[in-house]
């Protein structure tokens, strides 16, 4: 159940952040969680969210509404904080009655019930929203025109009828809007404007990153500030706001405790000063143009040249290394061959010398035999004469 609760709060916060980032409006949300089998978790809790920022939280059994932001704590007096504590405790007992009614109707005792109540100020108009969920499923939604509930599931039909017949339901809805939500929203809106006036402007960066094919550019706009909810961030091309093909990230924390929002789009336009990143609040307007450079202050053309140079340099180094290896291998092989040839040559030399000596000795013997035969023949001739 704790996972469902955190997911419910996170989705509500992200929805509010995206909404207030795109439009000139402010939203105050009251996120209720009621557990029939709480175990180690509180039976009842309310998380209050203003323009996507969690500002306070109260839970049973102490029902103390605690602020999580210093400027929020200063927005209310000590007596107003006590009133918020009493509001939290009163909501607990009121919703406990409604929760028991829901459990009896759907015939279960193990339920996780959530309720999202909110009011939104858009200019001079203030609107309200209210919806219920049971076990992470949509259950009831308030019709703002008739102030009647409509069912979002088959299990909610009986509950819808009983809720619509309760005489105190409509007055409680009006009291919440007029006495709790709207006054608190107006107070926070003014306090937020004063806070932004006293703090420095957001840090704004616009830079490009080339693609692999060099035909398109990934254009980024980074906005960083301690308070980003309610800040509008937009990209413009030649003065026209881009509504399509622009990715907007949810606020993410930085190491210094500030938040950042990132906008990204793909474009083939590389000329400087045509794209602008614009940041708007109630009392602030900042616009910065893209100068055609990357984050490290290099133009995309210079970046391409440096990349090509590095690639060529690595290629030349690789070729040189290969040539050196080839020379080393050839030198080694030649040395082995020469060494082996000398050894073989010595053996052949001895063998050839031995053969030559045998041939010479045979020649000398032959010559000697012929000379001796000649002498003997001559002696025979003289004898017969």
Main β sheet profile? 8 strands, antiparallel
Question: Which class do the helix and strand fractions yield?
Answer: alpha+beta
Q: From N to C, what is the helix and strand string? A: HEEEEHHEEEEHHEEEEEEEEEH
Strand order of the largest sheet: 4-3-2-1-5-6-7-8
Provide the gyration radius in Å. 46 Å
Distance between the termini: 150 Å
Please state the average pLDDT score: 78
Strand fraction equals 25-35%
How many E strands? 17
Descriptive account of the structure:
This protein is an alpha+beta fold and 385 residues long. It is 46% helix and 28% strand. The model is unreliable at 1-11, 13-23 and 302-306 (pLDDT under 50). The strands form three sheets. An eight-stranded antiparallel beta sheet has the order 4-3-2-1-5-6-7-8, with helices on both faces. Strands 9, 10, 13, 14 and 15 form a five-stranded antiparallel beta sheet that branches. Strands 12-11-16-17 form a four-stranded antiparallel beta sheet. The protein is elongated and about 160 Å long. The chain contains six helices and 17 strands. A hairpin with a 4-residue loop joins strand 7 (137-143) and strand 8. The longest helix has 85 residues, at 300-384.
